[in-house]
Amino acid sequence: MLRNCFEPGANVRDDVKLADQQLIDWLRLIRTDNIGPRTFRMLLNHYGSARAALKALPELARRGGAARPAGIHPRENAERELAATRALGIELIALGEPDYPTRLQMIDDAPPLLAVRGNRDVLARPLVAIVGSRNASGAGAKFAERLAHDLGTAGFGIVSGLARGIDAAAHRASAATGTVAVLAGGHDRIYPAEHEALLEEILVEGAAVSEMPLGWEPRARDFPRRNRLISGLSVGVVIVEAAKRSGSLITARLAGEQGREVFAVPGSPLDPRAEGANGLLKQGATLVTDATDVIAVIEPILGRSVNLAAQEPEQKMDDPLDAEPRDDERSRIIGLLGPTPVAIDDLVRLSGASPAIVRTVLLELEIAGRLERHGGGLISLL
Predict the structure, then answer these.
(1) Protein fold of 3-118
(2) Contacts of 283 (CB under 8 A, 6+ apart)
(3) Is 145 helix (H, G, I), strand (E, B) or coil?
């Protein structure tokens, strides 16, 4: 590898690929205690190779006053990781290699090794992140779906974190056109586990990426680390719903620090799930009501025009009430409701419940005085 390719934003040669022995040295260095992406870059720039840096670590630790010798990652462990990774169809792409995502390479704490599974071609496209509340409202999830679908048909890849709520809605709506799931844990430790099927759907046209080793169970502190990759991969980040303190706002902050565009979808001031996004708008984020708002800002960055595809009208459903909802179905449907009006057929699709179950729950809420009906078949929670 060329030494200058590890400076953030530097140009790299398009013919540089690590040999397996170099890749093992890189794995050993980044998996060694107290070595993060920034320290990795500094060591590689100073010593010229991962192998030379590994040899220097014991003396560096001694001079730093370490109580015990540096815990250097064993070669046999790195060899096992490389073999296991390849056995699962995962490719390790090194910083500076031609397939490493260009925008991600520009951030100062880009992962030295990115584990990629699926169709890696999607990483070469312009990417837009769509993130938001795990406890999404029906209206928020519907908007995320529409935005992801429209941007996907316009040629963008959609990036998100595979979480419940807004993330899942964005992934599902763009699975056919190409979406990127950024994992907080290893490729074999999907969180939440219920989204393993969704990930398999994503991998047909899109990809999953992680900087963590196989077997790594995601912890709370791993999600902000993941969020910097979501924003780092993207031209811009759209916040659809976010509470006042949420991981989505961390992603927005990181996007600003990385020089990415920050977009926010306005929401009802009565809905706490919209408080964070509304706050971003007050701070100067670009307001988004449809895909054209995002495209208008990103087009000049890309240096080319982007066209939206024509949309087909959605089919409406009308089913009788003839079922008794289970408690989990009732809770799921009510969780999708909020002060913002949402269509009944969207509740059916987002909840996964039958139309009869949804209409029964809505009738219960209406009788209890908790439901408001609006024109056009829209409803909201009082």
Answers:
(1) Rossmann fold (3.40.50)
(2) none
(3) helix
User: Max alpha carbon distance in the chain (Å)?
Assistant: 76
Is residue 261 within 8 A of residue 237, CB to CB? The reply is: yes
Pairwise CA distance, residues 329 & 358, whole Å? 8
How is domain 120-302 classified at the architecture level of CATH? Answer: 3-Layer(aba) Sandwich (3.40)
Helices (H), the chain: 20-30, 37-47, 50-63, 75-87, 102-105, 138-153, 166-174, 196-205, 222-233, 247-257, 275-282, 291-302, 327-336, 344-351, 355-367
CA 289/CA 163 separation, integer angstroms:
23
Joined together, the tokens standing for residue 353 give 């419940």
User: What predicted TM-score, i.e. pTM, was given to this entire model?
Assistant: 0.82
- CATH fold match for the domains 120-302 and 327-381: no
The tens digit of pLDDT for each residue in 239-274 reads: 999 988 888 999 999 999 999 999 999 999 989 999
Mean pLDDT is lowest, of 30-39, 139-148, 280-289, for: 30-39
Give the phi and the psi of residue 237 in degrees, each rounded to 5: -125, 130
Phi/psi at 128 (nearest 5 deg)?
A: -125, 130
Phi/psi of residue 100, each to 5°? -70, 130
* pLDDT (tens digit per residue) in 39-61: 899 899 889 999 999 998 888 88
The CATH number that domain 327-381 falls under is: 1.10.10.10
- What is the β-pairing status of strands 342-343 and 378-381? antiparallel
Domain spans, the chain:
3-118, 120-302, 327-381
Report the distance separating Cα 341 and Cα 289, nearest Å.
15
| pLDDT above 70 (res 135) | yes
CA atoms of 311 and 269, how far apart (whole Å):
30
Hey, what are 42's tokens? 């500094």
Cα-Cα-Cα-Cα torsion 89, 196, 190, 347, nearest 10 degrees, comes to 140
> What CA–CA distance (Å, rounded) separates 273 from 240?
9
